[in-house]
Amino acid sequence: MNKEDTLLYLNNIDKDNKPKLLLHACCGPCTCGVYPQVSPYFDVTIMYYNPNIFPEEEYFKRLENLKILNKHWPFKLVECEYDESVYLCQVKGYEHLGEFSKRCEMCFRNRMEKAAKYAKENGYDIFTTTLSVSPYKNAQLLNEIGNELESKLNIRYLYSDFKKHEGYKESIRLSKEFGLYRQEYCGCRFSLQEKNNK
What we know:
Low-confidence stretches: none
Radius of gyration: 16 Å
Largest sheet: 5 strands, parallel
Number of strands: 5
Shape: globular
Strand content: 5-15%
Number of helices: 8
Structural class: alpha/beta
Mean pLDDT: 95
């Protein structure tokens, strides 16, 4: 869907019979900026699928943040298996590229496709990702990938740029309110090394 289609879709939702949304989430803080925007319109399930995250302890630290949020907000949480080799295989040949590169695009595509397939196979009406709430993520690229997956898999994609309308600022505020851990790098071993090099 494009922006106009999304607005039309949201305006026609029956809030007494909400569509089922599968929301791919990268972490708790980003979810803080997105869940309040989508929960009035959708019955939300959050899917935590992030094989890019390194090290393994970091992966589970971010998952724990979602579990903390789940004590405050009534979403269903789907936990996927952690296997960094899936990510490393996906970005093979692009490891040397920096953040905002083709390496990141391949990572986005892998996670969003997993979410789209899960949504399709499990009877969801629509899917999207929290990734666009970050000012460091390219919402246009994410929406292009989402629309490609919508066409390829025949599962509706929710166009988004969740950083707008104070989404990112709200993610910071709610993270502090809930006492969440806020990570200092995107997640993968390469972004961690780039952060350490700086």
